[in-house]
Design goal:
single chain
């Protein structure tokens, strides 16, 4: 659960960069 919150926080912080968001999605799968 903590990992999920950390992930969401990171995505929100790097919401501007679409590349980072895509990379985050890859990490999710």
């Amino acid at each position: 659960m903590e990992v999920r919150m950390k992930f969401v926080r990171l995505v929100k912080r790097m919401r501007s960069d679409k590349s980072l968001k895509a990379y985050a999605w890859y990490g999710w799968i």
